[in-house]
Amino acid sequence: MIILEGQLPLLFRGGGHMSLEAIIWDVDGTLVDSEELHRAAFNTVFDEYGLDCRWSRKAYSKLLKVTGGKERIRYYAKLSGMEKSFPSSIEDMHARKTEIYHESIRLGKLHLRNGVKEILNRALEKGIRLAIATTTSMSNVEALFSSGVLQSEHWEIIVSGEHVTCKKPAPDVYLEVLRRLELDPMDCIAVEDSENGMESAVTAGVPTIITTNGYTRYQEFGKEIALVHCLKHGLTTLEGLKTPITINHFEAWHAAARHLVKGRVHPITSSSHS
Ligand code: XBP
Ligand code: MG
User: How far is CA 117 from CA 4, 159, 187, in A?
Assistant: First the structure.
């Protein structure tokens, strides 16, 4: 769980429920390790448009700082000085990228990240509500439903990039999820994989768990953070935790987040993970 010091006044609202009412999940990089598929789809569309550019893993990890596919393409076109070679309608190009991405999901190339399925199922059994706050488009979330990666009936609220004015790191998606859930941010926990996602959730006042992946492993996440390295069974956290992450951890971290003392967060240690 992470809570940035600068955001604590926002977080410490009091009120609401004592128990964990909802978990708000990011999609790309969190529920599914999808960025390699996004990258491949961008590269395929560049080929189709006859553009002499290819995003390497290294380049893409930097480009991920720009959230949203259209925004990322525009940023790159400008940065590379290739603006004139790119089509006038980045929207059309991005729509084609989305089709390519859907096709790879249909081919079964995406799966839930390890540990996620168990947490989702246990949360539902306990009556904890599930929501999605994502930068990507609704159609990409729907592609995960139709391919069976996610089950649509599990998700009460879904807010995606096109539903809000400002994408992550702005708090808009989270604020919209909270509005629709009719919950206080402190009743929820967010799960994110990136600095941008974390900033979005924390600015909305939601205590946030970070689960990194190959692209976000080296991001900073701030100093005051207890970083959960990965939901994957048996992987360690920064505190050396070697147990699988379960819904019990989520509930314990949520309880700890409600007990902020003197503007600081209780450090998350192995003992809080029981
Ligand atoms: C994920 C993204 C997305 C995908 C591409 O951000 O930035 O833009 O990389 O998706 P987050 P689209 O996980 O923080 O929501 O091409 O559909 O925009
Ligand atoms: Mg993400």
Answer: 28, 20, 22
Residues 6+ apart with CB under 8 A from 254: 1, 19, 20, 189, 207
Distance, in Å, from the CA atom of 163 to the CA atom of 4, rounded to the nearest integer, reads: 26
Work out which ligand 1 atom sits closest to the CA atom of 137.
17
Please give the pLDDT value at position 259: 65
State the closest ligand 1 atom to the C-alpha of 97, by its place in the atom list counted from 1. 16
Tokens of 126: 């306990």
Ligand 1, pocket-test mutation among 27, 63, 67, 193, most atoms within 8 A of CB: 67
Q: Write the pLDDT tens digit of every residue in 102-150.
A: 999 999 999 998 888 989 999 999 999 999 999 999 999 999 999 999 9
To test ligand 1's pocket by mutation, which of 26, 32, 36, 38 has the most ligand atoms within 8 angstroms of CB?
A: 38
Domains of the chain (ranges, CATH numbers): 5-33+112-273 (3.40.50.1000), 35-106 (1.10.150.240)
CA distance 241 to 262: 26
Half-sphere exposure of 18 (CA within 13 A, CB side): 0
Low-confidence ranges of the chain (pLDDT < 50): 1-15, 223-241, 261-274
**pTM for the whole structure:** 0.86
The single-letter DSSP state of residue 112 is: B
Residue 175: per-residue pLDDT: 97
- Cα dihedral 5, 35, 230, 135, rounded to 10, equals 40
